[in-house]
Design goal:
Blueprint lengths: L6 H10 L1 H4 L4 E6 L2 E6 L14 H20 L6 E9 L8 E10 L3 E9 L5 E10 L5
Antiparallel strand pairs: 1-2, 2-4, 3-6, 4-5, 5-6
Length: 138
């Protein structure tokens, strides 16, 4: 089955959308309903204590899910986040990390998925559950 958006189109989304550019995200892989991003370390991401700030992990999960949805519905889809729950499991310290989002169910109105952020060596940093509302329902 062909994806509704290509890797090149999703890369373009990352470079053209102002809210994604600040993270320096790199698109690593896509599949049907799935997207993996790399988030390069930036000192600006650190909170006091030397950990990568939680909102950076949350943003990576949200953007990865946004792109995963586009693999199913196309690059012009305007579905938006309706709910996000995050569990922080380990700290990232002066390291890049990857975030993989995967759609679990694509409904007529709602899209359910999960995203996981992992650091070096595969250490799980955060687990996110996601709910998007489809644009025709928003």
């Amino acid at each position: 089955m062909a994806l509704a958006a290509t890797k090149a189109e999703l890369r373009r989304q990352l470079t053209e959308a102002p809210f994604t550019r600040i993270y320096g995200l790199k698109l690593r892989s896509i599949a049907d309903g799935e997207c993996t991003l790399e988030v390069p370390f930036q000192a600006a991401f650190e909170r006091p204590g030397g950990m990568v700030a939680g909102p950076v992990l949350m943003a990576a999960a949200d953007i990865a899910m946004w792109l995963a949805v586009m693999t199913k519905l196309g690059k012009t889809d305007r579905s938006v986040t309706a709910e996000m729950k995050t569990s922080f499991l380990n700290a990232a310290r002066e390291e890049s990390f990857r975030c993989t989002a995967r759609i679990l169910q694509l409904g007529r109105r709602l899209i359910y998925g999960v995203a996981e952020c992992a650091g070096s060596g595969g250490k799980l940093l955060a687990h996110h559950t996601r709910k998007y509302i489809r644009s025709d329902s928003a």
